Amino acid sequence: MVTEIAKAKLNLALHVRARRPDGYHELETLFAFVADGDVVQVEPSEADSFTITGPFGALLSGEGDNLVTRAASAFRERFGGGAHAITLDKRLPVASGIGGGSADAAATLRALGVLHGVAVDEMFDIADRLGSDVPACLFGRSAIGRGRGEQLEPVAGLPGMPVLLVNPGVGVSTAEVFRRWDGVDRGPLPVDPRAGRNDLEPPARAIAPVIDDVLEALAASQGAGLVRMSGSGATCFALFEDVASRDAAVEALAGRGWWMLASYLT
Ligand code: C5P
């Protein structure tokens, strides 16, 4: 049995540069990863099975359209390896801008790679076909993403930086948020992510105004540095200068009914 953590993905900045003829958008984004996430367990088995557990498991179906089973099918088509029993412990909210299904798919590929001696480097083309964020999640370390987000350039991250993720409990459709982007190119990714933006914040806030409340509450937290929405939302994050101020923010925000994850960047 191989266990892989599907680390939550953050976009420390996300600049949308153009709409593409293929319906996707040209991005420049700074990916970072959080130490915690969903947990994927894979073991060889007589027959394929897929079990979903965890606090957010009930929101998913085990049917064929799940990215985990699609990743496993794509792996087998390419590398063989037989049948597997796969368990997904869904600890992170779904459709929430922090990787979710993409991270689960990448963790599944990594686990299958360990079981069958396939290096991560050999699986990027499969990852690319599974979704725009899957290559970044397969890489699993800080990187700048260009193109759809799949062209990766490794960068030094902020390992150990305390982070708080907050989701107000509304699922937001990535496709709809991109569709509502106003088409204005506001310029490239700066070297310092604090000078950057998430261009998907305005369209996501129009769909889910509660994102404003989350961003405001995080910005008002003592010791919070960078405060931003991740991906297409609705999860927002704050980076903190120390663990004590992060944990104080958790206490201050408790009682608002929001999902929170106190963790650190890897
Ligand atoms: O690649 P993935 O299937 O995860 O993307 C989900 C949706 O998000 C796409 O169908 C598209 O509408 C939107 N998207 C986009 N531009 C990107 C990535 C995603 O428009 N670079």
UniProtKB/TrEMBL annotation:
Pathway: Isoprenoid biosynthesis; isopentenyl diphosphate biosynthesis via DXP pathway; isopentenyl diphosphate from 1-deoxy-D-xylulose 5-phosphate: step 3/6. One of its GO terms (molecular function) is ATP binding. It catalyses: 4-CDP-2-C-methyl-D-erythritol + ATP = 4-CDP-2-C-methyl-D-erythritol 2-phosphate + ADP + H(+). Residues 196-254 form the GHMP kinase C-terminal domain. ATP binds at residues 93-103. The active site is at residues 9, 133. Pfam families: GHMP_kinases_C, GHMP_kinases_N. Keywords: ATP-binding, Isoprene biosynthesis, Kinase, Nucleotide-binding, Transferase. Its EC number is 2.7.1.148. It comes from the Bacteria. GO terms for biological process: isopentenyl diphosphate biosynthetic process, methylerythritol 4-phosphate pathway; terpenoid biosynthetic process. Belongs to the GHMP kinase family. IspE subfamily. Catalyzes the phosphorylation of the position 2 hydroxy group of 4-diphosphocytidyl-2C-methyl-D-erythritol. PANTHER family: 4-DIPHOSPHOCYTIDYL-2-C-METHYL-D-ERYTHRITOL KINASE, CHLOROPLASTIC. This is 4-diphosphocytidyl-2-C-methyl-D-erythritol kinase. The lineage of its organism: Bacteria, Pseudomonadati, Pseudomonadota, Alphaproteobacteria, Sphingomonadales. The gene is ispE.
